Amino acid sequence: MTEVRICHLYPNHMNIYGDRGNISVLTKRLHWRGYSSSVTNIGIGDKFVPDDFDLCYLGGGQDKDQNLIAVDLAEKAPAIRSAADDGIAFLWVCGGIQLAGKRYLDASGSELLGVGILDLETIAGTERLIGDIAIRSCVDGAEFTVVGYENHIGQTYLGSDSRPLGKVLHGFGNNSFDQVEGAVQQRVIGTYLHGPLLPKNPELADLILTWALAHRTSESISLEKLDDDFAIHAHQRAVARAGLKR
Amino acid sequence: MYFVARLMGKIVAFLSPLLRRGGGTSAPGMVLLRLHPKALSKLSGSLVRGSVLISATNGKTTTTRFLSEILNDAGVACVSNTSGANLKSGVATALLTKERHQDMGVLEVDEAALPEVVKESRPRMLILMNLFRDQLDRYGELESIAKRWREMVLELHPDTKLLVNADDPVLAAIGLQRPGSIFFGLGDASSYSRDELQHASDSSNCPQCSAPLSYNHVTLSHMGDWKCENCELSRPHLDFATSQIQLDGINQSVFTILDNSSRQEISSSMPGLHNVYNALAAFSAASELGIDHGGIASSISQTVAAFGRTEKVAFCDREIHILLAKNPAGANANIDTLLLHSGPLHLCVLLNDRIADGRDVSWVWDVDYERVLTRVETLHVGGERSYDLALRFLYGGFEKDIIEVADSVPDLLDSLVSSTPKHSNIFVLPSYTAMLDLRDELVRRNATHAFWEDGK
After folding, report:
1. How far apart are the first and last CA of chain A?
2. A194: annotated active-site residue
3. Given this chain, do its domains B51-69+126-302 and B309-453 carry the same CATH topology?
4. What is the domain partition of chain B in residue ranges?
5. A11 touches chain B (CB under 8 A)
6. B360 and A227: CB-CB below 8 Å?
7. Residue among A94, A152, A215, A235 flagged as catalytic
8. Minimum distance, in Å, between the CA of residue A85 and any CA atom of chain B
9. Do B359 and A132 touch (CB under 8 A)?
């Protein structure tokens, strides 16, 4: 049985709002299709070995916790970059998208270096961007809507090497100006849609799993459909709330 | 000018119960504060015996209820915002509409509103009970509320007595800043504590040096008997401590409270460890206010739950237990409580996403619903975000066939009755406005009273 090896980075610090829901979705959707999976928690002081994993998840944290992991993450950065170059699938959410970028300039103007697996940088804004968000994504030829919730003060700007995850249909997105959300580069996805975004967005979950399986097996695998009845209802309700046509 | 503003507020107070649901628990104060922004300090000044303010993420309403029952029984007439309207406007409304003989305030205050209310009302006592992650879209990070509380305590008037839950590391550190703080906590909770922190623990790092804390026991979320191996900060000495806690299912709790010189047996009809904290906080406060311990114990034993807080409603030959669950720590405490029930579990979880619930419902993924997986016989989900809950349970390992999604409150009640045998206990864990919606329907069906009539 093919096993997908998932790395959950800093689960004790970066878990501000239901991030473990995303891990449940990834493992259950594999299990329902007859694949097995393992989840390894990698925290402060643990070694990150790129060859050990097919998928890497990082969630959001309080500022306090984000500062606690920053030094450790800088030590892991070279290994994480080599994992991204090697085609491991990444989903870095909320604070994660900022840490995946090149740098973060906080309100006092001091610079925090990111891992650099996404070509973007983030500057602390003056107002938090909070609320429901819906975006239209087109990644690897698949087109789908992603719905969720954002809550961030950072204003993120993409460089030329990364593409947005989607066009904003409702909400803010990366910053107050560009009308785009998230970033994609190689098999790395960063997004401000925080916490449990995968339960309501099975297409995004399956895209990431396809990438992880491709890394694991070196083959391109098309995943069988699942009964996504609940997800479709929850997704449609979110779309309706955002005042969008389906 | 103040007189006119006060009169306007009173007129609104007279009219609002006639106009709409809610019984006018906030509107009169809102009008008054609009016309006279400094009204709260004037109103507070009119309380001859001063006021006690109570704040927390969880347990405000129940603790306020315990304490006001104790004081009223002891002959101290108290005004209280029993309906849970706890923003500045709700506090002002309670004081504005108080009866003439009520000369002391026992008031619950929203965590974010607390610093301003404390500053303006200069309470004689302030009780800080806990801080958990809650509605990040509204309150921001837990740490930002903690920071504001820290500053508030440093500026507290010297006459204000501060009572702090020592089991919450962040709050204990805030209390330790100020000489004379009174600390309460669960002394011996070994039989109900857990070996490790729950998933949704927020403050498990040392508030002084940020090193991970170690615990002799963990009670709820990040609370317990904690210490830091690195800087040696530890839970302060408990002025009031529980011991010999016995949780008797969903029916009652029995425990002993020790202070420096005496011990008092307590029994309470409110189940669960979280209610032990609430009773302990009220006991400590009442004791510091000079009420005799036997009297406190008797008032606690007679206090029944506030609306929606482990409230029991008889409905169609079934008992509906409403356990408000608006954040992970509260929901987990309720799950602990319903696991104490030995019979089959009929569970119903309701989730809305209005402003009072928090627009962001991500938090349901931080609740350990999996702990009831093997015990659940029927499972209903409802509210505006019913399908988010359905997904939560599906990915939590519950079979899809068992997850019943209700489209409306009337449908939900009908389905609860048709899918459970007579005399069943049905446990409902609703978010705040989902609780109000459920109670509205129960009121409509003559099963209970309106919430603004609660405690009257």
Report:
1. 38
2. yes
3. no
4. 51-69+126-302, 309-453
5. no
6. no
7. A94
8. 31
9. yes
Q: Which of B170, B360, B369 would best serve as a mutation to test chain A binding (most A beta carbons within 10 A)?
A: B360
Sketch out chain A's domains with CATH numbers. Answer: 3-241 (3.40.50.880)
pLDDT tens string, chain B, 456 residues long: the values are: 788 888 888 888 877 766 555 557 788 888 888 888 888 888 888 899 999 999 999 999 999 999 999 999 999 999 999 777 899 989 999 888 888 899 999 999 999 999 999 999 999 999 999 998 887 766 677 888 999 999 999 999 999 999 999 999 999 999 999 999 999 999 976 667 666 666 666 678 899 998 889 999 899 989 999 999 999 999 999 999 999 999 988 888 999 999 989 999 999 999 999 999 999 999 999 999 999 999 999 999 999 888 888 899 999 999 999 999 999 999 999 999 889 888 889 999 999 999 889 899 999 999 999 999 999 999 999 999 999 999 999 999 999 999 999 999 999 999 999 999 999 999 999 999 999 999 999 999 988 877 766 654
- This prediction has a pTM of 0.88
Residues of B in contact with A200 (CB under 8 A): 388, 391
Residue B353 phi, psi dihedral angles, 5° rounding = -130, 40
Q: At the fourth CATH level, which superfamily is domain B51-69+126-302?
A: Mur-like, catalytic domain (3.40.1190.10)
Work out how many CB contacts closer than 8 A connect A with B.
88
Chain A residues inside the 8 Å CB shell of B388: 199-200, 234
- CA-based nearest distance A149→chain B, Å: 7
| Fold designation for B309-453 | Protein-Tyrosine Phosphatase; Chain A (3.90.190)
Residues 100-159 of A with CB under 8 A from B: 128, 130-132, 149, 151
Q: Which residues of A touch B392 (CB under 8 A)?
A: 21, 199
Paired residues of B61 in beta bridges:
none
Q: A8, A13, A152, A194: which one is catalytic?
A: A194
